[in-house]
Amino acid sequence: MESFSLILAIVVVTALAFDFTNGFHDTANAMATTISTGALKPKVAVAMSAVLNLVGAFLSVEVANTISKGLVDETGIRPEVIFAALVGAILWNLLTWLVGLPSSSSHALLGGLIGATIASAGVGAVHGDVLVTKVMLPAVAAPVVAGVAAVAATRLSYTIGRKTDGKAAEKGHRVGQIASAGLVSLAHGTNDAQKTMGIITLALIAGGAVAPGSNPPTWVILSAGLAIALGTYIGGWRIIRTMGTGLTDLQPQQGFAAQTSAAAAILASSHLGFSLSTTHVVSGSVMGAGLGRKGGTVRWSTAGRMAVAWVLTLPAAAVVGAGAEAVTGLGDWGTALVAVFLVAASAAIWKISRRQVVDHTNVTGADTEEPAGVVTQAIAAVAPPPAAPVADGLTATIPAPASALGTAPAASPAAATPPAAAV
Fold it and tell me: Does residue 69 or residue 255 have the better pLDDT?
């Protein structure tokens, strides 16, 4: 039985708190398209995803071993370092959830760990080859591969279904979408739940509770699986809204193609031990599905904001992790100060989120549509108004909307005068 110190217990609890935020932050990865197309009711979707995340946590430990054994030097790590890393990861998760951006929880965790490790033991304590081959390269390649696969799968789905009854094909794709969403949830458990397992195992090694090179104990696997499942059931509705309707408009065929492509990429990465961002994969597949349908569109301004968040995730979490490590290095009171800061900042973010509540009742609301850009507004302002038929067979000009012109319509003397009787 492992021997626990107080700091080690704090690290384990904080790691499970991160796992919980990972769950509700990444619920959108599995269920956003299923909810947006109406294949499942929102609460049913998140409950199904929660159960399958828990099951997936028991299927593999390859990703957990990448984090606990390969990314940083185990011998130069103290439990306080891991605590500082988790602080950076949790705060970034909460900030991006608040603004509805599907950033990578995985990169937040890895960024926090890298920053705290460098602050504690120097750059040499980070294994650069593992960082590049199993973190950075998959981060770039995975969304591209998933996106291309989703484009091909979407076009294939529409081609196959072209000669079938429309309603029957749509029903079949909805059923397939439910199955593929379940597969994504299972894959998410095999990848993201293991990251917390790896970080807890690394803390246990650093604290002398288990031997170096050990696999995650059974209680670590179970607790990590339960934490991510609970977070998934809570539902990160803000990010579900962005992924489901803010990025593109999906039909059941596209939802099925996007989720199947994402699940295949995530499961393959888990098997190889790549610490993959499921957010990157699913986002890439959703955009690919949007482009794969004839006439489909992607809201590139939303995609651009997501890309900025992706680029900032790892360095931002690393900076916070390094700062937290510097404070914890001052002693027990420094660790207590960081813990108080984490709780206070988390509470403040939650309070701000209550100003505009997003939940299962309004996650697919009409206000998710992206506003028209300046180019669209300029074209509307100068375009000639359409012609409409009138009773005598001639045509009348329909005035341009006031919103397009940017001014209120002026009162016309002719409009106030009744029309003359026909003669």
Answer: 255
